[in-house]
Each structure stands twice: as structure tokens, then as C-alpha cells.
Design goal:
By secondary structure, the chain is mainly beta. It is built from 5 helices and 47 strands.
């Protein structure tokens, strides 16, 4: 009887506990989004390269934002936000010489970096919709596509829900709309056989394509048949890229646009007939004489349409379907949009948003996961609300579903998929949107037991770096002349390391911020070259004076290097002689220490020997000689002799 009473009492207590206590770990971020309290379930937040911030959180969202239904769903939301002046927003597609192409997001990033040395992708997501089922132009973008200044496709899909975002070369803003293009395609000429858009020196309107204009300039692409060109100056070219495009919802197979990039290989003044244009080549037929002084064999060029109005000069574009956040208000809320399944059904989603200062935010919401996986998927209203909670005021929906993927570059430089694609793996997609920075080439070049050396090891691709500051455990050390040595550090101690800089380009100033990493000084005393100098010089031999400090016996090899030769020396000696050196040529010598996969190199000593002839080799070292180095080739008689111990 007592046991039954106790059980009844416990059930009564549980019944009377308020529901708010049961859900004590849930914190409302808005009427439509809840978060599990971070002390119970920590969320990921990490500053990555470029000062961008990556987060991943487990949230609950209210289905369609319908307050009456109160249907809450578990989500996993991955986000990367960046300062508008820190990163470049680049759109990229891995393609071949002709046609459109598909690749995974990872493959697209690798392709971008291989074709744009000096640049690094810090994060990326899948981008515009692509026609993956088309029999021709498979993976063609749905909308206008400008890639690093090249206008690949001029047209935007006819659907009213689709539009285009345009980005300048170096951040600090975007435009949105439906671009209008020129009626004619334009010839743009580079200087110095370049393909860099900064090197375009002239542009000329082309009057017709694949149909002769007897008074102007005609561009002839592959596919045109035999054509009479009598009276025209013919410029034959070979292309490195050629693409055609049409509407995303074509009613015919007609070509609406084209893009070509290549080089002139021949100039012909007496040709009367072109017997068709083969793959890999193109022709410019000029009746006007405009090209006489502008094109020659070796000239590089591209042929593309021009975008007009606010899209003129835009460097990258990204197509979207449906604006989901407008002036801070999420769109498509409630049952009113239930009949539009694309808008109101739950799916994995990829979206992009912009804060009031135009800073961009990339977001992926996982979906189609198993029960209790916290990967339900969202409607467009929920996606818009999630962007709003990340301080965005405008937001746009990108390709989603199985395509939804986010990659960041981790602290080791590895590209990591941070969400869970619903296919269970990365899907082949078309255009991707990337956060890109120029590699600043700021590197730690040496770590000892008591110091670190940081250098800018190479210039950047565009612009210059100024105001480089190294941050070490809260202390700031300005870099001068491309180098800073931070000394008086503790042996075997970890330090938080990062750096900042200004990138100056075309009169504009942009901010740069590295990822914070942990470095550690050596636990043992670092070897040191205390002295390396010429001693006695006699005819074709030199005696070197040196002194090496190796308290903890870490050095695995010490040698004098010159003319691609390495002559070993003893760490515990103070002199070494090298004989049979070549005469009448300058020789550069340096002392090198190897230890623990590191090297220490002395200042370079140079000497030109002018007296006497070669002794023909040999060694008379006596008892103190500890090693002999016999060279090869022209230095076959070089001898090393250890002369004096410490």
C-alpha cells in the first residue's frame, strides 16, 4: 500500500511540473526559431581565414512560420559570414574548353585555385540552379553568369521569381536585378598576350555572327558552312574557351548568347572562301579596316556581350530563385502559400543573405535526414527568418535539395564538408559561390626556443599589403620591410598567433585578418650559427672560420654549400678548409645546419679566386682530418679538411 501511494505521489508531481520546466533548455530566438541552450549542447563557432566566422547550430524552426499550428522541426544550420571588405564573392564553374560542366563543390574549388594562382577559397556553397537534365548545354546556369570579369551568359531565365546578384571585384557591395545586355557582341583586345581583364586595351563592336556584314566585322564560329569572304581581311584564331547559351526554359534550340576567348594565329588578306569553321578555331572577317592596326599574330582577345546599367563592370554574378528576405522581413509566411510546394515544402536549402553594410552570409540548412537526426529541412519563410537572425536584411534562395553543400578550409588548409548533404555525399552541381581572399603570403619562417620569425615571402597578385601587424597573445608587433622577429619568448610554450593587414588596390583599402592558430616554441635550445667568415685564402683554397652552438645536440648535419655542392663540416670544430676551387668566377658560400626537419642558414659569403692554378687534388690532412668530400664534374678535385677543434 505504501508503494502504491508513493508511485501515485510521484506521478502527481510530474503532472504538476510546468511544461516550461521540461523544455528548460530551449531558448526562443524569435517567435519562429528556438535554440537549445548552449551550455547543454555547445554549438560550433570558429573564425576562419579572412576574418570570416563559421557557425553550426542545432535549432528548432516553426513550420511555415504558422503560429496557429505550432509545428516545430529540428534543424542543423551551417553559416559563414564575412565582412564586405575582407573577402571577394566569386562564382565559378568547372568547365572544359567548350560547353558547360558539372563538378562537386570541392572539385570546383580546386579548379578555381588551379586557374587562379595566388588566391585561396576560404568557404563555399553550391550556387545557381543548373539544367542537369538537358540533352544539350547540360549544367548551363539558369541565369546570367559572369565569372571573374568574363560574361559567359548574358540572359536570365524568363521566370519572374528568378533574378541575379552582381558583385564587384573587391567586395564592398552588390547589385540585384535582371541584367540587360547589348544587342551586339564586342571584341575586347588584351595587351602583352595576357588574358587578364586589367590588360584590356580596346573594345570594338562586332556587326554580325556567322552571317557576313559586307561593311563591318563578322565573327565566324564553329558550325558555319562554306562562306564567301572575298574583299575582307581575315583574322584566323584558335580559342581556349567557347560557349553558347540559351534561355533556361527554351521553347526552341536557338542560341541567344555566346562567349569566346582565344588568340590570333594568322592574318590573311587574299582569301576568297572559308570552307567551314572547325572545332577549336574561329575567324574575324573585317570589311571595315577597323582591325588593321589592332590585331596581329599572337594577339589575345575575347568576344562577349556587354551588360548594361548597374551590371556594367560587375565582376561576378549569381543567379537565384525567390527573394526570401526583403528589408528585414521574411517572405512567404503561413498557409497562404501552401499551394506553392517549392515555397512551402520542407527541403534542404542553400541561401545567401546580406547585412545592412552589404556583408555577405552563406547558409546551408540540412534536410531529408532520418527521424531524430535534426536534419528536417525548411520552407522559404524559415530560411528567410534564419537569415534575419544572422543580422541580414536581404536574402535570396539558391539551388537546394541534394545539391546543398557547404565547405570551409580548416586550420590545416584542408577543404572540409561541414554539413550533411542529403544524398550522403557531394552532388555534382553547376555554378558555385565562393568566399575568396588573395593569399597574403605571410608565413612563420622560423621558430626557435625563444623567438619566432614572420615574413611576407612573396608579393600578392593585385595590390600591395600595408600595416601588417602580428598578434601574439594579445601583443601587437608591426612588420617592417617584410619581416618581424619576435624574441624573448618562453621555451616550449604555446602562443595564440594571428595577423592583420590592409590590402591597397586601385586607391581602395580593404581589410585582412588571418585565422587564429596556436604555435609553440621549441622545447629544446635551438642551434645557432655564432660565426661564419673567411679565414685564410690561398690560391684556389679557402679556410673558413665558424662557430656553432648546439647545446642539446640537435643538429643532424652541418655543411658549407656552394655551386650546388654540400661539404660536410664538424659541429664541434672551428675551422675548415676547402681546396681546388674554380678560379676567376664568383662563388657564393653559406653554412647550413639541419635539425628536426628544419634548417638554419648563415648569411652568404662571396669570393672570386684569381691566383694560382689547380693543384690537381689530394689531401694532406694528417691526423686531424675527419672527412673528405670528393666532388663531381668541374669541381672533381674539391677537398674538405677539418683544421682546428674547439
Amino acid at each position: 500500500m505504501k508503494k502504491k501511494s508513493l508511485l501515485f505521489f510521484l506521478l502527481l508531481v510530474l503532472t504538476l511540473i510546468p511544461s516550461s520546466v521540461v523544455r528548460a533548455n530551449e531558448v526562443s530566438l524569435s517567435p519562429y526559431v528556438k535554440v537549445i541552450s548552449e551550455p547543454v549542447v555547445p554549438y560550433v563557432k570558429e573564425t576562419i581565414d579572412g576574418g570570416a566566422v563559421y557557425t553550426q547550430r542545432n535549432l528548432k524552426t516553426l513550420f511555415r512560420g504558422d503560429l496557429a499550428d505550432q509545428k516545430w522541426q529540428d534543424q542543423t544550420v551551417s553559416t559563414v559570414s564575412a565582412d564586405a571588405s575582407n573577402v571577394q564573392v566569386v562564382t565559378w564553374q568547372k568547365t572544359g574548353t567548350t560547353g558547360w560542366g558539372g563538378a562537386t563543390l570541392r572539385e570546383t574549388i580546386v579548379d578555381f585555385e588551379s586557374k587562379n594562382p595566388g588566391y585561396m577559397v576560404i568557404a563555399g556553397v553550391n550556387g545557381d540552379f543548373a539544367d542537369i537534365g538537358a540533352t544539350t548545354m547540360t549544367y548551363q546556369s539558369a541565369n546570367t553568369f559572369v565569372r571573374n570579369g568574363d560574361i559567359i551568359k548574358k540572359d536570365t531565365a524568363s521566370s519572374s521569381n528568378k533574378g541575379v546578384l552582381g558583385f564587384s571585384e573587391f567586395g564592398k557591395g552588390y547589385v540585384v536585378g535582371r541584367p540587360k545586355a547589348s544587342d551586339n557582341i564586342y571584341l575586347k583586345i588584351y595587351q602583352n598576350q595576357s588574358y587578364d581583364n586589367d590588360d584590356i586595351i580596346d573594345e570594338i563592336k562586332i556587326d554580325s555572327i556567322n552571317s557576313l556584314d559586307s561593311e563591318g566585322i563578322t565573327l565566324l564560329y564553329p558550325g558555319v558552312g562554306k562562306i564567301n569572304v572575298e574583299g575582307a581581311t581575315i583574322y584566323k584564331g584558335e580559342y581556349i574557351e567557347y560557349k553558347t547559351s540559351n534561355d533556361y526554359y527554351p521553347t526552341t534550340n536557338s542560341i541567344l548568347g555566346s562567349f569566346l576567348k582565344g588568340q590570333i594565329v594568322d592574318v590573311i588578306t587574299n582569301l576568297s572562301m572559308i570552307d567551314g569553321v572547325n572545332e577549336g578555331e574561329f575567324y574575324l572577317a573585317d570589311y571595315s579596316g577597323q582591325l588593321n592596326s589592332k590585331l596581329a599574330v599572337g594577339t589575345t582577345l575575347k568576344c562577349e556581350y556587354k551588360l548594361l546599367g548597374e551590371f556594367d563592370g560587375i565582376y561576378n554574378t549569381l543567379g537565384y530563385t525567390h527573394k526570401i528576405l526583403s528589408d528585414g522581413v521574411p517572405m512567404y509566411q503561413g498557409k497562404a502559400y501552401a499551394s506553392d510546394t517549392f515555397v512551402s515544402s520542407i527541403h534542404p536549402r542553400t541561401v545567401i543573405g546580406f547585412k545592412a553594410d552589404h556583408s555577405p552570409v552563406l547558409m546551408v540548412i540540412d534536410g531529408r535526414g532520418p527521424v531524430n537526426s535534426q536534419r528536417t529541412g525548411v520552407t522559404l519563410f524559415e530560411a528567410g527568418e534564419l537569415l534575419r537572425l544572422n543580422d541580414c536584411v536581404q536574402g535570396f534562395n539558391l539551388d537546394g535539395g541534394g545539391s546543398s553543400t557547404m565547405i570551409i578550409r580548416d586550420e590545416t588548409g584542408k577543404l572540409v564538408v561541414v554539413n550533411t548533404p542529403s544524398d550522403g555525399h557531394e552532388r555534382v552541381v553547376g555554378i558555385c559561390v565562393l568566399f575568396v581572399i588573395q593569399k597574403p603570403n605571410i608565413e612563420i619562417t622560423n621558430i626557435t626556443d625563444s623567438s619566432i620569425t614572420v615574413e611576407q615571402t612573396a608579393p600578392i597578385v593585385k595590390g600591395t599589403l600595408e600595416n601588417i601587424e602580428i598578434r601574439l597573445d594579445g601583443q601587437t608587433y608591426p612588420m617592417t620591410n617584410g619581416k618581424v622577429v619576435i624574441s624573448r619568448l618562453s621555451k616550449g610554450t604555446e602562443y595564440n598567433f594571428s595577423y592583420t593587414y590592409d590590402l591597397v588596390y586601385n586607391g581602395e583599402r580593404y581589410n585582412g585578418l588571418s585565422r587564429r592558430v596556436v604555435i609553440k616554441t621549441d622545447e629544446f635550445t635551438t642551434p645557432e650559427i655564432k660565426k661564419f667568415a673567411f679565414g685564410k685564402v690561398n690560391n684556389n683554397e679557402i679556410t673558413f672560420d665558424y662557430r656553432i652552438n648546439d647545446v642539446d645536440n640537435r643538429i643532424t648535419r652541418a655543411y658549407i654549400e656552394f655551386n650546388n655542392f654540400k661539404v660536410d663540416v664538424a659541429v664541434d670544430e672551428t675551422q675548415a678548409k676547402v681546396t681546388n676551387l674554380p678560379l676567376n668566377e664568383e662563388i657564393a658560400f653559406k653554412l647550413v645546419l639541419e635539425y628536426a626537419d628544419k634548417t638554419i642558414v648563415s648569411d652568404v659569403l662571396t669570393k672570386t679566386l684569381t691566383g694560382g692554378g689547380s693543384s690537381g687534388g689530394g689531401c694532406n690532412a694528417g691526423a686531424n682530418a675527419i672527412s673528405i668530400f670528393a666532388g663531381i664534374g668541374s669541381l672533381a678535385g674539391i677537398i674538405y679538411i677539418s683544421l682546428r677543434r674547439k
